[in-house]
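Methods, example record. To illustrate the input and output format used throughout this study, we show the complete record for Class I SAM-dependent methyltransferase. The sequence lines were provided to the predictor; the line carrying structure tokens was produced by it.
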Amino acid sequence: MSATSYDTYEGLNRLALDRAGQAEAFDAIGNQYETAFPHKEGQIASGVWLSGELPAGSRILDAGCGTGLPTARQLCDAGHRVVGIDLSPGMVELARANAPGAEFHRLDIADLRGGRLGGPGSFDGITAYFSLLMMPRAEIPCALGMLHDLLRPGGLMALAMVEGDIDDFPIPFLGSMIRVSGYLRDDLRRVVCDAGFDIVGEDSYAYAPASTDVPPEIQLFLHLRRA
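The corresponding predicted structure is encoded as:
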């Protein structure tokens, strides 16, 4: 176990209820998400890194799998065993159609405590592409600590966040309202290192979504190893 114990995650249970509105928003968004974000070069490149660094057949958790595109399908096609989770039942349904070779569950990250889908050290790799930004900052270190513990020693994680000095901030998003958090990049590096990860690679991309109500953003991709 890392310094962040499973016993500290009661706050995540509370936030799972608070995030019900987030799930409803993404249920309503559905396939609009792929229309608004048609180009995902950074995410694809990060998936290539993770896939190439792990042996074939590795068990990978896709935390916040969304529609299953591109990541779950990409990792399945590379020969890995993918387990995807998402709080939105609509997204899970789309993911099952888009990446039939993966296993998907409607779960919150908080639901992974106590051995759900496997206990500590049960995954060789994890992806968390833009999923942790849906949490208030106070809960992100807890989530990172949980994901750290789910990795085997030396396991790898690919993390993506949008750069920004914001905390639980409401924004319009594809016709719905969601709440998002972000870090400036030095602060994000500190948070992941404090959670027990070594940073082994980093990329950033300027991204302009196709949707007019989603502002341009800087996407930060960190490649991490469980220390």
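Annotations derived from this record:
The chain is about 35% helix and 30% strand.
The mean pLDDT is 87.
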